[in-house]
Amino acid sequence: MSFKLLITGATGTAGAEAVRQALNHPSISQVTVLSRRPLPSHVVSNPESNPKLKVIEHKDFLSYPTTLLYQLKGHQAVLWDLGISSAGFKETDYEVITKDYALAAAKAFATLGSVDEKFVFCYLSGDGTDQRDGKAWTMFGRVKGRAERDLALLPSEYQSLATYSFRPAAILPSAPIPEAPRTQKILTTIVPVLRPFMKAYVIDASVLARGMIEAALKGASGEIKGWEGKGQAGNEGVFANEEIKALAGKATR
Fold first, then answer.
1. Which helix (H) or strand (E) holds 135?
2. Label partner for 39 (CA 20 to 30 A): which of 10, 56, 177, 248?
3. CA distances from 162 to 36, 69, 137, 186, 226 (A)
4. pTM of the model
């Protein structure tokens, strides 16, 4: 099978594990990372020596010129793991990174798909998000909710696009992330001890990656068998934490 997968946010906990999982997946022939800088060694050692991996340095995630889209021709999906903590941000600035970047990319990448074989956009959201106006308690939840909703509405205009959003709970890294926020490093230390008592509130990065890859591989029709309704606008249209685990458990390797 020839399947070309894009990944953003590859230096973070979710994105780094997605890169590693995708490189080892037999159904994926090429992994292309869009990044502002070269991949650090904690993601993949000697990335330039892996023939399955390509890194494209891209600075402006609001703009996708034709020269870049030409390089991406033949790619069938993206795992949009790009994100940042909302701490210290004004909501308008956080929205640019969290929502506007994703929407700009989805519209551009729609040109890579077709009505019959849609380009699959898998968006990393988070637990605590709510698409209903005024319902989320946090800025993170409000902005991610608007991003989920706007992405879910895009396929009605861009019929060569399919979108799916994922709301993991606390993500446990499979390998150390030197650049991880301090709070995440603390969670990584204490959560394994408490895991038996809080399974519903955590997810391994490897499981999250497998679930998102499964959607990327099987979502090109605009619907994933067994998960009808996912990708539609509304809170029921996203993959919640336990649903991601179930999706990952059905992944074929």
1. none
2. 248
3. 26, 18, 28, 36, 16
4. 0.92
Residue stretches of the chain with pLDDT short of 70: 1, 176-197, 251-253
CB atoms within 10 A of CB 43: 23
Q: Which two tokens mark 118?
A: 């849609």
Q: Which of 155, 214, 180 is nearest to 12 (CA)?
A: 180
pLDDT in tens, 26-72: 999 999 999 999 998 888 888 788 999 999 999 999 999 999 999 99
Mark residue 234 as left, alpha or beta (left: phi above 0; alpha: psi -120 to 50; beta: remaining).
left
Rounded to the nearest 5°, which phi and psi values hold at 71? -65, -25
d(CA 165, CA 216): 11
Q: Name the token pair of 31.
A: 């992994």
